[in-house]
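Whether sequence alone determines local backbone shape is best considered at the level of individual chains. When preparing material for the folding task, we compiled for one chain both its residues and its backbone structure tokens. The sequence in question and its structure tokens are set out directly beneath this paragraph.
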Amino acid sequence: MKKYSTQDLWIRVILFFAICVILIFSFQGFVLRFVRTLFNDGNAYPETLEINLVRAMNGIVGIGLVYIFLQFDRKKMSESGLSWDKKFGWEWILLSIPITIAGFIPTILIENTFEIVVVEGLLDIVGILLSLIIAFFAFGVGEELLFRGYLQTILETKYSFIFSAIVSAALFGLLHLLLLAPGGRLEDMFAILFSAFTMGLTFSYVFKTTNHNLIFPIAIHGFWDFFYFAFQAETTYETFFHTIVGIVASIIGAVVIFLLVYLYSTKRTFAKVNVDYSPE
């Protein structure tokens, strides 16, 4: 099967990411304004809600963009790693709950101790259900398809897993920086960039352990975001000290998840998913 040249591969990576950013900001400018007009008399929603709406658009864009790019190489969506594993699917989803909680607890405790995060309280049952759906299908599926299912996989057709994971995680962090801190304070920008980069590396490793099946990283990613939404947690980085603490907290959470997934993967053997993105 034909392989990408170095030039073709990087053109695809850069073009894919650029189109993704353009589409997301277009959605942010037009769709968000339309939602405000239709449901809130043209007024802005609270900042946290608007950030989540923008990230939900990110997920929708991610699913559509990956599908379009796969069509150019005559590939199926399942070849992105988005395929249900009959043997391990439910096991991964159920196991992702305690694994994510184990990483989330030290992260949120550290951030709360240093007053980086404010927890406003648990949402009502409707809010919890909506948050769970959005966290899984918009953030989990959409972002994992974008950065692990497509970008990491296409890079792995020519480069090592480590290099591919670093590049995809860096782009993952950059997109979060562009979305969540445009024109913001340096403290916020550094914290968002490096925290997302750290978690991106972890999701890349989880993707690797399942032989490129996205279900496990989607579940961990989805539950991680869900816990923040369910407790209405808002983060602020007042100084660079808070930024450093926030990054360290994210690293600790990521390391806990990494170690638990590593211990699990040493005891299980997973079938290889067909994710060859080389053009036919």
